[in-house]
Amino acid sequence: MPLRVGEKDFQTRVNKGLDDAFMRGTVRSAQEQLRTRKQASSEELGDWEAWRSLGEEIRTHTLEHLDYYLEQLSDKVAERGGHVYFAKTAEEGNAYVRKVAREQEAKKIVKSKSMVTEEMSLNDALEEDGLEVVETDLGEYILQVDDHDPPSHIVAPSLHKNRAQIKDVFAEKKDYEDSDNANDITRFVRGELREEFLDADIGITGCNFAVAESGSISLVTNEGNADLVTALPKTQISVMSMERIVPTWEELDVMVSLLCRSAVGQKLTSYITTLTGPKGEEEIDGPEDFHLVIVDNGRSDILGTQFQSALHCIRCAACVNVCPVYRHVGGHAYGSIYNGPIGAVLTPLLDGYENNKDLPYASSLCAACTEACPVKIPLHEQLIAHRQIITEKEKLGSMPEKWAMKMFGTGVSAPKLYRLASKQAHRVMSPWTKGSRISNGPGPLKAWTNFRDLPAPASERFRDWFANRRRSEFDE
Amino acid sequence: MKVSLFITCLGDMFYPNAGKATVELLEKFDCTVDFPEQQTCCGQPAFNSGYHSDARKAAKQTIEAFKDAAYVVTPSGSCAAMLHEYSHLLKDEPQWQQEADALSAKSYELTQFLVDVLQVENTGASFHAKATYHTSCHMSRLLQVTRAPQTLLGNVNGLEMVDLSHKHDCCGFGGTFAVKMPEISKEMVDEKVNCIQATEADILIGADAGCLMNIGGRMSREETPVKVMHIAEVLNHTEER
Ligand code: SF4
User: Fold this and answer.
1) Transmembrane region positions (chain B) (predicted)?
2) Who is most buried in A12, A49, A241, A421, counting CB within 10 A?
3) What is the pTM for the complete model shown?
4) What is the dotted CATH code of the domain comprising A52-302?
């Protein structure tokens, strides 16, 4: 599955989202639940703002010394007998994994959630080689079985489906016969997956954070499948995007605390798996062969720019869970595997503006995302920065808008003209005014009056009132 | 105390009564109010849409207009927040940036000015009604003004304030967002209106003309019988009992 998913046209995707009453209902209740839980669990930590600052500091420090820590990480992994591969592009990363699979003569691969492998379309690449790839996170598994339906949420990828729909998917594709009860479905999936785990030749996982000092990778999950993916198959490949790194275990502790609380409102998730190289002689389980693929895929171009802090992201989806726009349009509207506010920031950075120029405008700039982000990414400011690049550098803004803004610039910097225009507004608008409101405005006002009334401009502006009042004071 | 009023473009043209109430309120607390004629718009529409060179024109005009002011007070949370953006917007022009910093240091949103500078917590207003308050995003999140309006409204004689559920959710205005993404914006404002109706308040109070225009405009279209008032009008309200 590539970075960009779904229909090409933004408006089509938005309309589809807006029309999906069911999806909007689920999203609303999920947002509410997650938001409340996050609040409670973060309050437990005491000074949440201090924790956020610490999180931000750790991320900033790491990114500013990224070369150093990546080298340290890579040395440590090698010391432990693992292999490290730096992939500049998605293709390079895919090619490396394919090569490992060929060398192992692998047939089946089990995976545990990794967004970067989706960004790289790794599954497609492996399937081209005739390999069977099985996603083992419940959400991802559902999507995979449902003809590769794209994910719609960063943490809960199949948030847009309800139990009945999930049951139907399994009934149709896997001859599932039980009820739509969550326990029944989970039991069924567990049974299906158990076989896959035992059969698999290779396990592929993502990586929430790699620990540079020890060369370990960590995975934060609630299902335990990452444990199995890393423990059972003989070969283990972890794919991480290059910024997912912390200097030491101490920072890992802080980041995991922030992640669990922000993502699901838990102190800790059920499983935090860490893996350090292939298994040692005295160890009973774990892979015999360990590979770490560190993927750049456009990220180093973000370093050193005004968007650098977007790489702080720990994929907790706290920004998604508070976003009112996301709530109404759903994750698929973003047309990217990264959705919500961080998706609107990240997608144009990784995939360019041309195909994603609407995303930065899909925000009312209410800053709820910025307030929620545990690592203090100024998301709404970055959306404005994107808009600036889109209009002033890439020149992708519409002509009428450009002219309107030019007129605006002229008007606001010429007070006389401004005063004259605002004085005329009441008269100019009078043909459309009924009572004191305008319900069917002309031209550019249409988009507003399609859904709302506009108050008629006042016949006496504030400044006229003020001037008259002054005058009468002098007269007295 | 001499106070210069930044009335904002929406306030000037659409909500003159809020401006009048602002003047009267400030005078009530011994301020001499002055209105620099050269002021226009804070530049938010251009800034938020990405047209920063046009926004800079507005910023410079505003800086010029308030050069001699001791305090700049505005009855709009988001415009007040915008004044604090100027420094960043003009970062490539050090001379202007300095002036932007000076403006930002002396600028206040109305309720913030009343509470923090004038140390007023009770404006002596009296208003018998049931009302709810809309926390504008820019005022609460960017300007970080939340306590002042609540305190002042809490002390209005006779006013019963009901809490608005989901109050931190945006009303869907977002300046040009409302016209660039009208369908999404409509869904957002509808959700807000539902929450307002659920309070059974007679009046919706706000401190930002943009949000009031959006929510009020939607309620007017849907014939929702809730009156919209700017906080200055409420705080300046007196009634014979
Ligand atoms: S941008 Fe911040 S809030 Fe959003 S997913 Fe990333 S870390 Fe979490």
Assistant:
1) none
2) A241
3) 0.94
4) 3.40.50.10420
